[in-house]
Amino acid sequence: MIQHYRFGHPIHTGAVLDKPTMDITPVKDFPGWDISPSNGSLSKTLSESMRVFGLGETVRGMNKRGWIYISNNTDDPNHDEDKRSLYASQNFILLAAPEEEEVEGIFVDDPGTVRFDIGYTELNRLTICSESGNADIYRFTADSADEIVRQFRAITGQSYIPPKWAFGFGQSRWGYKTEEDIRTVYERYRDASVPLDSIYLDIDYMERYKDFTVNTESFPHFSDFVEEMRKSHVHLVPIIDAGVKMEEGYETYEEGCEKDYFVKKENGERLVAAVWPGRVHFPDFFKPEVQNWFGHKYQFLLEQGIDGFWNDMNEPAIFYTEDRLKEVFEEIEKYKNENLDIQSYFAFTNLVSTLGNNPADYRRFYHEHEGQSIRHDKVHNLFGFYMTKAAGEALRKMEPNKRILLFSRSSYIGMHRYGGVWTGDNKSWWSHLLLSLQQMPALNMCGFLYSGSDIGGFGADCTEDLMARWLSLAILTPLYRNHACAGTRLQELYQFQNLESFRKIIELRYALIPYIYSEFMKAAVKNGMYFRPLSFIWSKDSRAYEVEDQVVVGESIMLAPVVEQNHNGRTVYLPESMKLLRFKAWNDYTEEILPAGTHYVECRLFETILFLRKGHVLPLIKPAKTTAELDYASLKFLCYDADPKDYTLYNDDGFTRNLPFTF
Amino acid sequence: MIQHYRFGHPIHTGAVLDKPTMDITPVKDFPGWDISPSNGSLSKTLSESMRVFGLGETVRGMNKRGWIYISNNTDDPNHDEDKRSLYASQNFILLAAPEEEEVEGIFVDDPGTVRFDIGYTELNRLTICSESGNADIYRFTADSADEIVRQFRAITGQSYIPPKWAFGFGQSRWGYKTEEDIRTVYERYRDASVPLDSIYLDIDYMERYKDFTVNTESFPHFSDFVEEMRKSHVHLVPIIDAGVKMEEGYETYEEGCEKDYFVKKENGERLVAAVWPGRVHFPDFFKPEVQNWFGHKYQFLLEQGIDGFWNDMNEPAIFYTEDRLKEVFEEIEKYKNENLDIQSYFAFTNLVSTLGNNPADYRRFYHEHEGQSIRHDKVHNLFGFYMTKAAGEALRKMEPNKRILLFSRSSYIGMHRYGGVWTGDNKSWWSHLLLSLQQMPALNMCGFLYSGSDIGGFGADCTEDLMARWLSLAILTPLYRNHACAGTRLQELYQFQNLESFRKIIELRYALIPYIYSEFMKAAVKNGMYFRPLSFIWSKDSRAYEVEDQVVVGESIMLAPVVEQNHNGRTVYLPESMKLLRFKAWNDYTEEILPAGTHYVECRLFETILFLRKGHVLPLIKPAKTTAELDYASLKFLCYDADPKDYTLYNDDGFTRNLPFTF
């Protein structure tokens, strides 16, 4: 059952479909909740055993109790556990407890700041507050978590489906500058016989960080090079930034000015913000004509053979605005020649440290939305969604028959119809290894099925053992990309000592592609989840609710990866008997049936353990150098009290759009 | 056996005693090691099962493999897992493996930068490198880890012993400004019947952050107030900073200038650095006369009834130097009116963000050490040690019969003879809850027995459940202090909902004081450890080496606290049968014998679980409002296959120095 309650006068965000496939009932209150329209809040007392899931890409565990989360899309590379906001706002939570018959979901459709105080102020109290007091609130009730997720998708739409090659291994690094750099990556993987489907182009491929340009000095024959890679079934995936460089003679800039496509300040002047190229304008993605214009700009790269993109810096990230920078330089003057003590020293350094992503800057500009002028901060969390919608809709027009890879850093619910997400600038931390697992079910719940974290970690230095464990942990994660920040230790797999062992993990990934692709498609088409917390399946098992480092992936597999350094195994909780598959390589593995209960399971470095559920089947294929080269004739099936016939395998050409996808 | 090898021409640090109680043999090499005197390095191949313990106060687990640690004392409040340096340099490691008969220790006595590459560059290679190439290296070999620790203490000296009240509960916060603020803390704990032994005075008690002053506006009758608290057996513990404010008429400053006691630059001018009060000079703690002078300054506070101190900012922390600040203001000019792009924007912001603790500033000044002028960076890691030695030696002269509480933020081996340490500015993070447990054995190994982390976390906002779990985890930690940073959520226990439940945990702490005090004294007097990794006891049990979230405390207790949010229990590894004690309150507990193996053990919020070892005894006493008021007639004993007579209890008046302390 879906109920709807409205605070104030919310804008139409597009998160909810114009024609949902389930009925929505307007109501005057929600049973069990205290609603206070005057301060835009709703709250509820939680039983001790009640768990709160959801919120997509946030810090902390799968159970979100014990913190305040604030939806306010932010470019913050330090995903510490005390952060309240990351890049995304996915305002959907799900409440479940082992002793409750009913599961409940809440979606707050408000693109401004929304606070979720989940047992922070009071241990057993949940309070959700819309800062503006304008929000559409949807309440879902059903007898299972899976059903709540289906209801939610029925009103917000089916998830984006990428091409099949997007499930292969990808290599990325901010720092590849030239065609030769990229070719080296390709060749070193090829020479080591490590499968690879894609190489990512970070900001340096552009000419001075200008969208829809290619640096012709470092990529003198770009389309030839794209073609050269494509012949080996390797796809190049360029980044697209939200800000458009201010530069005379740069077409996108000049056209945008001419057609009045950029966001403006109250006084009618275009906002001058800055990111990589320095001064930029932001397209007003709230206008349909701007969406159409910007989206069709991707044509420039499609024409050169590109078939995948990642949208970045679209919170939008702001290094500074010209107005604020001027103020800061003026204020700095005051501190010259002073004795800077505790107050004045921090006041001075804060001037500079708060230049980036300053809240005041997000109040300096306006959007035009359905005829209304709206100050940016009130609709802030839609910006990345609308940029990606712009791309997604235009790509559908330009390539009506071909799936194009598209994912984004910033997001809002609704964007899941147009693209996936990656979880932004994580770090080479063991805690982020675990976090990357915990974020997946939360993202899936919110509709974002095509997702993944930067394997090995983006910031900080990766160690060989962390890389090995991360590749194993993410072995079933749809977006399977090794990515790192400029200035960090090189972390392509061939930079480490045990390349052979890494190859075996990547080969296992490719051996699992038939399962990954089948299960992803089922989740997408049936409005289900690909990653699930254990408690979504064993909903009466109170121990299952405690488990924060194991997930179920698809119908057959439970993952319980090693997430701590210097460990040769881990304890695992089995809600029921499962078959432990321990892989040293895709074709070198052992099978062992374990009873329900708590087990210490050995898992040495470079080994991958999977738990096959009873009554289920895992298909395995002989690996190939790319997903395109997989030979489905080589399929075999691992079973635990099941028959290969019990498994519904899905496959297709890997790129055609609009297949029937029925099961 | 203790061997000694020398690189270059190291200075005499005082870490090793002039008269060690064990022989040290000079050698030409260390068996099994590759020594390269030309680049100041020694290295060794590690078997896969070899563990490396030690390094005192560092990030990451008890087993230090898989990272580079750099000894370079640094005031860094972000103890993320990729940090290489924190406040302390404790260059002692211990190597052990289940299949090895011999345990090995290495101590690098070099007060400059030392790198420990423990399987970072190569998974199975340990390389230690003295940057300056001047170091005394000591190698220890024995048949047990405990024996290595005893050998190490035999040459570096016995650990500092605090007064008994220092084991009671302490409350602290940067933000208590007045006598009234402090009285409120006292009264609110008293009114709630929560035991309390101490309240800490952070920087605001001073007059404009000047050492050895008291702000007479906010503390108009300081000594009366100290006396008022002392009557209730509550001790006030003021902070002492390393920097001396430059201010005409301020005695310490004027005297220091007059007597030439402050550090100077190459040109002979006194270095102008800045911390809380703005511009300061640093005492040259390397000169014996300065140590004596500064140490005797504590008299000002002793005279007012104070009997405990914490030395802070003694890495030394530097907000900026006057010289660097001037350069920065000049360089900032260049960026005015420019289009700040990726290069120039980061160059500009880095100018300001690198002002604090800038490596170049540590090369701007000199110390006089045994007649030599030495540039600070070459002996950097001794600064906090010598400040605390100054205090410790003077306090011994001024109070020859009374133990005075003294601990420090910065440290180096040798300082453990003069005071304890706290682990600096941690955060209200669950990962730091675990870290605080992992740091204890490492600190103990290095001689720092009196230690602890800020309970509830210093930076970031503490939640009620984190506070509860932290108080339980630290239930046996010598320094048991709740401390928080200005600007964070208030975290005195009475700020939360379940004060009654908190009281029960604190009462349990007091019930355990006889055990804590006895075991601490045994460790101190016998040159042993109070906190030990499991593998130090079960040295042939390979599972015991994997355990990173359990420790043995004293002879009787294994701790296995809950370290994850939203968990009602945890899995515990028992190397042998133990008795599980589950406390809801000091006098409300259950006992259950568990066999060796892996168990899921319930432990709900506000419960504390302890594991009593077989053949051992745990004394328990009726709690009192302060440690001074404990009635030892109320002692009782919990036993597992043991008799109360099997336990050696230690007690004394709690403050007399130089007791025989024999067992």
UniProtKB/TrEMBL annotation, chains A, B:
PROSITE patterns: GLYCOSYL_HYDROL_F31_1. Residues 160-518 form the Glycoside hydrolase family 31 TIM barrel domain. Residues 530-618 form the Glycosyl hydrolase family 31 C-terminal domain. The keyword Hydrolase applies. It holds the Pfam family Glyco_hydro_31_3rd. GO terms for biological process: carbohydrate metabolic process. SUPFAM superfamilies: (Trans)glycosidases (SSF51445), Galactose mutarotase-like (SSF74650), Glycosyl hydrolase domain (SSF51011). One of its GO terms (molecular function) is hydrolase activity, hydrolyzing O-glycosyl compounds. The keyword Hydrolase applies. Keywords: Glycosidase, Hydrolase. Belongs to the glycosyl hydrolase 31 family. This is Uncharacterized protein. It comes from Oribacterium asaccharolyticum ACB7.
